[in-house]
Structure formats: C-alpha cells, structure tokens
Design a protein that fits this description.
The chain is α/β, with parallel strands linked by helices. The strands form two sheets. Strands 8-7-9-6-5-10 form a six-stranded mixed sheet, sandwiched between helices. A five-stranded parallel sheet has the order 3-2-1-4-11, with helices on both faces. The N and C termini lie far apart (39 Å).
Length: 311
C-alpha cells in the first residue's frame, strides 16, 4: 500500500506545477455530498480555484452542516436539481463568468450534455478525459486516455483523444511526449481493430495530422512501459518502454487499467476533460480529497493557458 507520506509528496510535486498562478473561478456542479464539497473547499484553500457552488442551496447547506464546514463568503447559485445545476454551470462558463467546471455529485453525462448544449463552449474537437497518474514503480507521470468519457471511439475520435492528451502533457511541461497506442499485441492484425487504428494514427502523425508528440503502436501494455519487455520482444522504438501517454482502445479497457493502477499499484491520480472552451475537472464519486485537489490543479493550469491561447 502507498503510504500517506508518499501520496502527500506526489501531490506537492503536482501542485508545484501551478506555482505563481492565480486561482481560477470554477463552478462546482451539484456539490451535494461530503467529498465533492470538501474537495472543492480544499482546492480553494490551496489557492487553485475560487469556487462558485451551483446546485440546490438547501442541500448544499445541509451537506456543509453535516460535514462541519463553513460556506461563509462563497458564491452560491441556487438551482432546483442536478440537471438544472449542470445547465446553469455551463451557462456561467459560456458567459465567461467562470473559467473551469468541476463535477460534484451528479452523473457525468448530465454535465457533458449541458456543456455540449452550449455552442459557445464547443471547439470542433472531440471532448475526452485524461488521467494523470503518479505510479510508484514508474519513473515519471503517466497519462491514460480515454478511460472515462468516450466508450468505443473510432479512428477520428482517437485522433482527437490523442491531441487532447498531447496538449495537456505540453501544458504540464512535457515537450514532445511519447504516446503509446495500446492493444493486446504489438503487430498489426486485421482481426483486432485497435491494431489497425494504431497503425493509422502513427501514419497520421507522420503526415502532420497529429503533431507535438512521438507516436508508436500498436503496443501491448508491457511493451509500452517496460524497456525490458520491449527488448525481449525485439521492439525498437523511441516510445516502447518509456511512454508518457497511453491511448487505450476503449473506455472499458482504460477504466480497468486506471483502477488497477490506483487500487493495486498504489498510484495517485487526477483527471480532466479537454476539448471544450473550459476545462472540466471530472472526478469519480469514490475519489478522495487529494484526487479532487489534483484535478483542480489541472483545471487551473489549463484555464490559464486557454486565456492566452484559446482552444
């Protein structure tokens, strides 16, 4: 098991990426359970966000009372229910009144649908989720995409998923990240569609359709993160054994991989959705405070970048 000290140290290193950045105004969408409310307040106390609580006021205040926290001085937008909270938060973002969104205790599809309904928040690029993991047995941060949003993406969707992850890595200081396109094998096999997508994505990168990264695939998971495994299998690649980003075939495989890293591998995580005009900190209902604070940090960094370079 990961010690609390190790987890705290990893979080400190992540928070250092936002050093010198001002807090960003962030809508906390339906923070009607203890973890989502405390996570938002912890992110505010850390100096990452200025929270705007959006949801049924009576439920938010009741949750605060039960959690033993104070809401003094915090902005609060009252709505009737979670669906209305998602719509209100998306409207605030479209109007420029908030520069980031953070998911509370509502379903992901409610929030995503509300964002998509706002034409002002669309970019023309597919929205996708990126996990950032600190894995004790891996020497650098590891990004996994998409394990939370796109269920069975096709080739063009995977190209946008790759672009979003590459953009995030660049914002976090990783120049030309190495992106491994995962499958069950490292050879192209027409019977395994993900290997065909991997080969096509690599050719797209060669032709300049995907830039600012080094791509390779198909690669099995072991080849992507283990130099020894890649060497044993005779794979010669600048990505194999040294990947920064793992692009998974579909949501099911990605979700399993992400949860295995966290629950069996002792990894600490944060996550964000890119592809809209504002970042969306999209946390799981089971995520603890540290994951929510880490996700707020990602939202802060991205929001500042978007102010200078709109997506």
């Amino acid at each position: 098991m990961t010690s609390l000290l190790e987890a705290d140290t990893r979080l400190e290193h992540l928070l250092a990426l936002g050093k010198g950045l001002a807090p960003v105004r962030c809508a906390i969408v339906h923070p009607c359970d203890e973890l989502s409310l405390k996570g938002a307040l912890a992110a505010a106390e850390t100096g990452l966000i200025e929270p705007v609580l959006v949801g049924p006021e009576h439920r938010i205040r009741d949750c605060a009372d039960k959690a033993g926290v104070l809401l003094d001085g915090l902005a609060l937008e009252n709505t009737a229910h979670s669906h209305a909270a998602a719509q209100k938060a998306a409207q605030l973002a479209a109007d420029g009144r908030v520069h980031a969104l953070m998911k509370g205790s509502l379903h992901t599809d409610e929030l995503i649908r509300a964002v998509l309904d706002q034409a002002a928040l669309r970019t023309g690029r597919r929205m996708s989720h990126v996990f950032r993991f600190d894995v004790p047995t891996y020497g650098k941060p590891l990004f996994i995409t998409d394990a939370a949003l796109n269920i069975t993406p096709g080739l063009l969707e995977k190209a946008d998923i790759a672009r979003n992850a590459i953009a995030l890595a660049g914002m976090l200081g990783i120049a030309r990240p190495k992106l491994a396109i995962l499958s069950a094998v490292e050879t192209v096999n027409p019977a395994i569609p993900s290997t065909l997508d991997a080969a096509a994505l690599c050719k797209m990168a060669e032709r300049g359709q995907i830039t600012a990264a080094v791509l390779d695939g198909p690669l099995a998971f072991d080849n992507a993160i283990s130099r020894e495994a890649a060497r044993t299998k005779g794979i010669h690649s600048p990505v194999a054994g040294d990947a920064d980003i793992l692009l998974v075939p579909d949501l099911v495989s990605g979700n399993m991989l992400a949860k295995q890293l966290e629950y069996l591998g002792g990894a600490t995580s944060s996550g964000i959705v890119l592809g809209a005009r504002v970042p969306l900190a999209l946390t799981s209902r089971a995520d603890g405070i540290a994951a929510r604070v880490g996700s707020a940090l990602l939202a802060q960094v991205i929001a500042h970048r978007y102010r200078d370079e709109p997506p």
